[in-house]
Amino acid sequence: MKVNLGEIAQLTEGTLIGDASVQITGVAGIEDAGEGDITFIGHPRYASFLHTTGASAIIVAREIPDAPKPLIVVAQPYLALAQVLEVFAGSRPEPKGVVDSTAVVSQSATLGADVSVGAYAVIEDGASIGSNTIISPLVYVGRGASIGDDCVIHPMTVVREGVTLGDRVIVHAHAVIGSDGFGYAQEGQSHRRIPQIGTVIVEDDVDVGAGVTIDRATLGATRIGRGTKIDNLVQIGHNVTVGEESIIVAQVGISGSTEIGKRVILAGQAGLVGHIKVGDGAVVGAQAGVTKSVAPGEVVSGYPARSHQAASRVYACMQHLPDLLKRVKRLEQRLGELESEHQGEKG
Question: Quick check: is 96 in a domain?
Fold first, then answer.
């Protein structure tokens, strides 16, 4: 496939500095790019590669004087990269309207137009699959579950009974949506299981990463808001609500009944206790331990999570602890010497 720079500049709504007729045949990282590739600089730390890259053109956030390559200047290089990658990735061929002979599809299940069902997939009684959706091999769709139009459910995913997925949802391999919430009542010296009779609702345009688990509600629904993107290995507890367009990065754990607002970012390995609220637009730093509610727009980090500015000061102080300990020991030693001298003088 070949696309000229003029077309790419138009696609990305960027400003082209250089020859519009240069032909681009691929996309590559700035260190690996060669002739015919377009690359990008998304962070200033990679600016030094500008003069060494083999790429034929570079997407940048600002004009760079004396650049050795044609540039496309855009407001958001990552967004422009996504737009260009969509062109070169194209649409992968998928079988349409084919149900593999080894798949088990209940007679009471409903399949929309051009649904694909892969080998050894199971679709239980009363389940509904929307048009153009792809059910990959070894997927399990439980009784009464509903999956919308244009979804892609990757291999070995489990969509449990009664769960609802909206349109254009992507679920990656080994995700489990609708497993029982972790609910037990103390009964003497043992733990009595609380039946989890609620459901999970995943709204339109949500991406669910590999190995993600989203627990069904005890009562009502665990809800993932429209456009939210969930990275791999995330645990979302029962009755959690996640607002629209939020980002949840790998290995985050969210305890039950926590409310996450719209456009929230939860960075990698953050842990949140239950029954708290994280306001719209808040950011929780990596490995933060959130033990109380976070106000809208607030940025927190550390354990226990506090304002990022305060947490940074705490971490900075901690770097000096070894030296401070040595100073305290020297002062204690000197204080002991002074006390001995004072006692000697009194004697």
Answer: no
Instruction: Count Cβ atoms within 10 A of the Cβ of residue 330 and give its class: 0-12 exposed, 13-18 middle, 19 or more buried.
Output: exposed
Domain that includes residue 146, residue range: 104-309
Distance of CA 224 to the CA centre of its chain: 13
In a shared domain, residues 174 and 83: no
CA distance 147 to 136: 13
Q: Which of 20, 54, 89 is the last residue of a domain?
A: 89
Q: What is the pLDDT of residues 62-97, one digit of tens each?
A: 888 888 999 999 999 999 999 999 998 865 556 678
Contact 90, 72 (CB under 8 A): no
Give the number of domains in the chain.
3
Task: Looking at the structure, tell me whether residues 60 and 145 fall in a common domain.
Answer: no
- Annotated active-site residue 342? The verdict is no
pTM of the model: 0.87
Q: Do 133 and 152 share a domain, yes or no?
A: yes
The angle, 0 to 180 degrees and rounded to 10, between the axes of the packed helices 77-89 and 5-12 is 120
- pLDDT tens digits for range 22-64: 999 999 999 999 999 999 998 888 888 989 999 999 999 988 8
Choice among 51, 154, 191, 238 that is catalytic: 238
**Residue 29 CA: distances (Å) to CA of 24, 70, 261, 321:** 14, 16, 34, 41
One domain, residues 186 and 300: yes
Quick one: 139 exposed, middle or buried, by C-beta within 10 A (0-12, 13-18, 19+)?
buried
